Amino acid sequence: MSSNDTGPDKPDRFSAPGQMHGDQDLADLARSNGLSEAAADAVAAIDAVLNKVRRSIQRREFGRLILARIDPSLEVSHLDVIIAIAHNPAVGDAPQDEVTVGNIAERLGIDPSRASRISADIVDRGYALRVASQLDARRICLRLTAKGERLMTAVRQTKWRIFAESLAQWDEQELVTFARLLERFAGWATDEASMRRSADAVKQMMDEAEPV
Asked: What phi, psi does 187 have (nearest 5°)?
């Protein structure tokens, strides 16, 4: 990564929060809860960025971009299943490479019949093959073929190149700091107790606002 010098031909890559046009109602709410003007604008800007990322994820832009570069004949659902097979964690006594259609359906949150159809399709396309379980010969598992492994390698390399292009002007300290702060920020998304308290508070506020 290069240094973070800026100049006439190298604009500052860090936009001021106010330039991101966050939700002003959210900023006002943040200010009413004691945040400073700058902090409230930053909160609104973060919310705006998250909304933009969420829309991109919903449209599956990243997956579609990767497939367009690697194999345009595949759909994002195919890539999901291939990744689910490749990134299967070992659970209990089950080896890491033993992935059933049921595992895929559960991991992707889809109907087992849909998981079965997509799995059959990637087998027909040569990205995976059916194998008998080492623990129970009656159980059929899925395993990536050499072609599937090459696809996963290409996906990882493409992902890295996209990240590298995006972060090309960041220096080491910026990346380390950003990674630490992002992990810290993401804690709210996994704090179920905190989310329940927040939801309860909103419900109480709505109940109190209802006319008697």
From this structure: -55, -30
Question: What pLDDT, on the 0 to 100 scale, is given for residue 93?
Answer: 46
pLDDT in tens, 89-131: 544 444 556 899 999 999 999 999 999 999 999 999 999 999 9
Quick count: other Cβ atoms within 10 Å of Cβ 126?
A: 11
> Residue 170: what are its φ and ψ, rounded to 5°?
-90, 140
Q: What is the pLDDT of residues 40-69, one digit of tens each?
A: 889 888 889 888 888 877 778 878 888 888
Burial of residue 119, with CB atoms counted within 10 A of its CB: 0-12 exposed, 13-18 middle, 19 or more buried: buried
Beta bridge partners, 94, equal: 91
DSSP 19: G
Do the Cβ atoms of 152 and 143 come closer than 8 Å?
no
Q: Count H helices, E strands: the chain? A: 10, 2
Q: Which of 107, 99, 102 is nearest to 133 (CA)?
A: 99
For the chain, where are the E strands, in sequence order?
128-132, 140-144
Q: Dump pLDDT digits (tens) for 155-180.
A: 888 888 888 888 888 999 999 999 99
Contact 85, 96 (CB under 8 A): no
Task: Indicate the helix (H) or strand (E) that contains 91.
Answer: none
Q: Which of 122, 85, 90 is nearest to 107 (CA)?
A: 85
Provide the 8-state DSSP code for 15.
-
